[in-house]
């Protein structure tokens, strides 16, 4: 079965049909979902864990509803909200067994939702907590169109504060070029591709995905965002993972079953999970 390595299950857009949405995911062959815990504000990062516990306690978990895991982190735009209470909350969440990664965290220079120095400082603070809890990280990196400034600053931070940990992570919704992909892989990161790679103008992104070895790939929805073709413009959901997986399979000239097996293997290895996670 497929693993959706990045979905915002706590989004208000799923409030009215969250269980039905998860059942559709299971019916579409998605056995596991990583629920991203960033919330609308920093102090809402724990909502993802609440959803994970709610549905993992459901009688149909793993047999009608995907198995869920959570992450926790402060999104780049919300880094001005970081204080001691937020950092303590993050540390407490990362100590929970269901919270298997720190993120999504990183740098966003596209919207400039927070001063760049504040984003970098907030990223470093979170890296320190993730390292102490031995949790891999989920990175959001978005530069201005055509620029590489966010990537340059990100790698400078990771080289100093993260690479020595050997914990690796995921370049979520990867949007860089081959140089950024190569540097990510060399640092022990997986490059995760979302529905935007299916868009007509995304050929450069598909070219990068085609060059990445199978053991360096993940797939995700980023639901409720970035619905893939043929559902572009609609609310995205984990059931539509198959469209992105099919696109990746075509690029790698392998079957969809092999993409599912390899990305599951990669997810289990990176997040240090029991092998049965991929056998839902």
Write a structural description.
The protein is an alpha/beta fold and 280 residues long. The chain has one domain: Alpha-Beta Barrel (TIM Barrel). Helices cover 38% and strands 16% of the residues. Strands 1-2-3-4-5-6-7-8 form an 8-stranded parallel beta sheet. Helix 3 packs parallel to helix 4 and helix 4 runs parallel beside helix 5. The protein is globular. The mean pLDDT is 96.
Question: Which descriptors apply to this entry?
Answer:
alpha/beta
Short description:
The protein is of the alpha/beta class and 280 residues long. The chain is 38% helix and 16% strand.
Shape: globular
Helix and strand string, N-terminal first? EHEHEHEHEHEHEHEHH
Main β-sheet: number of strands, strand sense, barrel status?
8 strands, parallel
What is the level-2 CATH architecture name?
Answer: Alpha-Beta Barrel
As a whole number of angstroms, the C-alpha radius of gyration is 17 Å
Total individual domains: 1
Low-confidence stretches: none
- In the sheet with the most strands, the strands line up as 1-2-3-4-5-6-7-8
Number of strands: 8
By CATH reckoning, the class would read Alpha Beta
Mean model confidence by pLDDT: 96
CATH superfamily: Metal-dependent hydrolases
- How many alpha or pi helices? 9
**Helix coverage percent:** 25-40%
| CATH third-level topology | TIM Barrel
Approximately what portion of the residues adopt beta-strand conformation? 15-25%
Termini separation comes to 7 Å
- Structural class comes to alpha/beta
């Amino acid at each position: 079965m497929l693993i959706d390595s990045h979905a915002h299950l706590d989004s208000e857009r799923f409030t009215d049909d969250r269980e039905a949405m998860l059942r559709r995911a299971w019916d579409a062959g998605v056995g596991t979902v990583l629920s991203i815990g960033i919330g609308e504000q920093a102090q809402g990062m724990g909502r993802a864990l609440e959803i994970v516990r709610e549905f993992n306690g459901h009688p149909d978990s793993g047999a009608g509803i995907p198995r869920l895991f959570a992450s926790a982190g402060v999104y780049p735009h919300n880094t001005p909200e970081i204080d001691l209470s937020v950092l303590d909350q993050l540390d407490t969440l990362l100590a929970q067994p269901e919270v298997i990664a720190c993120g999504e965290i990183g740098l966003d220079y596209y919207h400039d939702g927070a001063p760049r120095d504040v984003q970098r400082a907030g990223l470093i603070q979170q890296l320190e907590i993730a390292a102490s809890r031995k949790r891999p990280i989920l990175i959001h990196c978005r530069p201005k169109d055509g620029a590489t400034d966010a990537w340059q600053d990100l790698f400078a931070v990771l080289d100093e504060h993260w690479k020595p940990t050997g914990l690796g992570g995921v370049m979520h919704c990867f949007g860089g070029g081959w140089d950024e992909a190569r540097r990510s892989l060399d640092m022990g990161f997986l490059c995760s591709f979302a529905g935007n790679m299916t868009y007509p103008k995304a050929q450069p992104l598909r070219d990068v995905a085609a060059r990445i070895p199978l053991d360096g790939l993940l797939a995700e929805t980023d639901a409720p965002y970035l619905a893939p073709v043929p559902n572009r413009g609609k609310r995205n959901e984990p059931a539509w993972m198959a469209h992105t997986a099919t696109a990746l399979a075509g690029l790698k000239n392998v079957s969809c079953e092999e993409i599912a097996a390899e990305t599951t293997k990669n997810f289990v290895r990176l997040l240090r999970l029991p092998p049965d996670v991929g056998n839902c």
